[in-house]
Amino acid sequence: MTLLEFAISNLRRRAARSGLTMSAIALGIAAVVALTSIAWGFEASWQKANDARGTDLIVTRVASENTMPTPFREERVRQVLAAMPHVHEVVGLLSEMLTVSEDAPPVFVFGWVYGSYLWDHLKLQQGHWPREPMEDGVVIGSIAAETLHKKVGDFIEIEGKRFAVIGLFESSAVVENGALIMTLDQAQLITDKPGKVNVLNIKLDTTASEAEVQAIKERVKRELPGYVAITSGELVRKNAVVRISKAMSNATILIAGLVGALVVFNTMLMSINERTKEIGILLALGWQRATVMKLVFSEAVVLSLLGGAAGILVGIGIAWGLEHVELMRGKIDPVFSVPFCFAVLGLSVLLGICGGIYPALKAARMQPSAALRYE
Length: 375
Known about the structure:
This protein is an alpha+beta fold.
């Protein structure tokens, strides 16, 4: 019998305790997996939406770190940006999360400049795009259509105004699939924000180099005090919701690590106390103290590794379930990756090692004569 087989046999002899320990570790790891994947997914979803639109730079207020950047009057800022070299197009965007049905969760409502490049990446499935800047119609994403139970030809009331659903579209970004889109003029009208946008999207010409992009950023900072030009990734990373989500994820990792190590420590210490005579016999038969330590570490690592593997599966299930909850549909897109799963398994192994250090040392320091007399 190998050392690993011996360790597994010891765990099977105490199946109930081993099962409870693995369950506790699994719950902690599941929380880590679910929260981390959702935090990363939220960030990736918004960045994917910005990248899919073909936006090279985004201009917003310096201090704006809200989910939706603080609205500002666009006219003067847009004129300054449009005059800069290599700027092909500058278009405003207004975003709000609004309630459009009493029996459905709030959805994102985007206002895009009529006829701008922002619309180009969307795939129209049914109906048509807005035909004029002030058309009383909205196009609806595929997920939003399912959530709101709407189709082309139906009507939606937004901020007290009735809009016809004129089109159904598909986007590569989950956030947009769960949203309604109307013209910027209509969005400004119904939200009582005339002339205001959350951000200005800049599309550069194909000849712009990295150095020239950096020069535009510096020029915005110099000529438009209080505003900043950043990439979509930078905008998402400074978003308050993304930062809070990541902070919660990090806190969960810390708490799960401490609790997991403590659970393993308690289980292994109790096991060592109950097997004092057994360990004394092994030492009397010639087992090296290092071998006894390896046995204890093997048991601890097997416990935490199995708990970690189960926790990953449970965490993926939780994140998947949250993604399909009506309130969250079209707003989050959890991100999982093979390296991330291996990193979580590595964390599980670390928990086992940390929790098994003291019990392993205690077992190795036993004197065979004293251990054999232990009652």
